[in-house]
Protein: 2-hydroxyacid dehydrogenase
Organism: Pandoraea horticolens
Amino acid sequence: MINAPFLTACRDLLGRDHVLLESIDTDAYLVDQRKRYRGHALAVLRPANAAQVAALVRLCVAHGVPMVPQGGNTGLAGGATPDASGRQVVISLRRLDRIRQVDANNMTLTAEAGCLLANVQAAAAEAQRLFPLSLAAEGSCTIGGNLATNAGGTAVLRYGNARELCLGLEVVTPQGELWDGLRGLRKDNTGYDLRDLFIGAEGTLGLITAATLKLFAQPAARMTALAALDSPAHALALLNLAQRMAGPLLTGFELMSDFCLRLVAQVFPQQRYPFAHRYAQAVLLELSDNESEAHARDLLERLLSAAVDQSIVRDAIVANSLAQSNALWHLRESIPLAQSATGLNIKHDIAVPVSQVPAFLDATDPLVQRIAPGARMVTFGHLGDGNLHYNVMAPEDIDPDSFLGRYQSAVTAAVHDSVHAHHGSISAEHGLGQLKRNASAKYKSPVELALMRTLKTAFDPLGLMNPDKVLPD
Amino acid sequence: MINAPFLTACRDLLGRDHVLLESIDTDAYLVDQRKRYRGHALAVLRPANAAQVAALVRLCVAHGVPMVPQGGNTGLAGGATPDASGRQVVISLRRLDRIRQVDANNMTLTAEAGCLLANVQAAAAEAQRLFPLSLAAEGSCTIGGNLATNAGGTAVLRYGNARELCLGLEVVTPQGELWDGLRGLRKDNTGYDLRDLFIGAEGTLGLITAATLKLFAQPAARMTALAALDSPAHALALLNLAQRMAGPLLTGFELMSDFCLRLVAQVFPQQRYPFAHRYAQAVLLELSDNESEAHARDLLERLLSAAVDQSIVRDAIVANSLAQSNALWHLRESIPLAQSATGLNIKHDIAVPVSQVPAFLDATDPLVQRIAPGARMVTFGHLGDGNLHYNVMAPEDIDPDSFLGRYQSAVTAAVHDSVHAHHGSISAEHGLGQLKRNASAKYKSPVELALMRTLKTAFDPLGLMNPDKVLPD
């Protein structure tokens, strides 16, 4: 597929080096993180700044070329992978990687879309500020991608999703116009909320080129603890108590089942099962404290001792140092790694109202067993947000690949139906991309789908911005 | 203006008692809070529930009748007042006043649009939870109106605006369809953010009938202090220090000039000037603490003593009790009352980046003096959000009415230009309504105005939802 006049114009605009055509150059852009989707592209285009992005979009419009914006290409729903036609272009935002401004007194930072999340965090830290968005891919994902997918992560309980951390945006519209909405204001009620429309739209309504982000005071200390409990209902009771006693100091609340902890210990023998006895569930709690480490530890100890007194918690470990805190987080972060090491799983990124988590698990675990007897549940996640990574692993004696082939679609359909019955979301933090756009539509009302289509048609009447993503067929 | 078939259909739908036609019944709905706007209406319609609202909107569409939604009618920008034609109807949401659900474990509450804000706060408190939105009109404004205008208030520093406090909405579209988006989820990335599009749209894109709101753990104590300082720059340094030392416990940070405090003491002699000496500025700080009153007071004392050591603060009063805390808040809340008591002011509800507040005041005060020599500045507001009520009072020897008549438009234009030059907003928390829709357009880019019009046309092609509000002529 060659479109010579278009490619010539791209080269004139971007320079020859930034119009990639050879598969050795383009391959990494054409396959998604989980290697579920592999596309083709007319070219991979690497503009250097927002003005070039705008000019490039106008060029694509003039030539009728569909565009797929891409950041760090770490998405988990195929939202940044082109289709198989070879007629689309990938617009990589990675060269837009400047931190434009840090305004410490305004608690804001303005970053271009292609900045790595880790670099945004570092720029904030350099100014003695915290940018709290934190997720596994932070070393390779970009802030533009985080905003386009409204990324979540481990600190949502206290700081919100990417959406809540953004005050202003710069966006190139599907017509190639540059909207400068880079406001650093905490209050601004002068018209429609365009910002939040572009956030989470996965590049289907426009292309984010920069953002003004909220910063926070850096806490003096972070302290974690691990609590052993008998059930998710006890974990919910602990959450309640922790929110009452620690209020906004509670920045992490992660649930892990006994099976998850044993899996980690089995795959990574240096990470031992943390308790002397086995308990059905464990919760990792994190406090972020602006006073001192001593204050945080004292509060955690009082909290857990109250929880033991109230028979909510059976055993607990409070970290004695930052190193111990990190070790507890490492345990939590090892769960997906241990999972991958044992073969493919049927994965679900779901959320239900926090109060519904125990009921959801009680209802859904048996459904899965009925479909796939002996399947092992790898249930963990951000309980404080009602967000579970509700993963289903093959029975010990069944090959993971054939397990997936046989059960994936039935299990996923049952899980999603149950999520919907519990008023939940089938994509809590990963977005829809191409992976879940049709599944999601099954649970949305015709009114909502019609409103989404109205928006898409109004903003992108030619349908050239990341086609066949988010919206259902 | 009579439209008999339409009114008959309205009576059939709502019952005769809820179709108000006589001026004795309708008057209160047709004039805004500040009595700046007085409209006429074909009728004032009072549906009882969301289904009736939807049916009513379909009826209005069928008869081509423009609709003006109204909550508590406490808005400050004329957004809920009909025009003078007598062809529009006011749809009052006040009868939709049920708290549909409180889910304490999910930290959510679902309220109908017509619930008074104070009743939402009370329902949360009954479940030992906090709904933190708080503003002067809370006893008479409705949560639907708060969301339609994205209301701010005194707790935005910690909890955000109304937008940040809402998880889900129920909305009647301009076509009279009911969208059930009442989700109680902390994470949900399944499509476009319709919720935030309706929030702050002042009823021009649809009609909010209910909302699912975020609750928080009730703090164990709230403690306030009043600090005396030499300048807004010192206040900014204090904010910085307070955020570092108290982090998210800081829930209020209100600036008041010496003139404001003297004005209160003059109008309400029982409220004395709080310090032994006069200082140029005062800051009210509030901490909300989940531990104890003693912990909060200790932290406030450490904070203020550090601020004195660093020569940021000249003098300080830390409240010794809840009563003293309330007395300090009362001082702050008396400023607008003292202002009203001395006659009309030229009022501005503006925001700039927090870091720009000192520069904005240094630049703008002289501009106002040049236009209106001797004018007295009544400057106070939510410094933590960069939101100032930057009000201009007549010189002592000039009649307020004639002062307004002579200077209002020139002063306001100069203030707004300066706000814009400092990257600020000319409507921080009151919205645009009819008051500021044209002024606001002056500072918006053609791209942004075009996107706003695109949205309006796509959602409300007939232009029947709250016409001539928000968008410029």
About this structure: Residues 400-421 of chain B form the longest helix (22 residues). The radius of gyration of chain B is 23 Å. Chain B has a mean pLDDT of 96. Residues 191 and 406 of chain B are 51 Å apart (CA to CA).
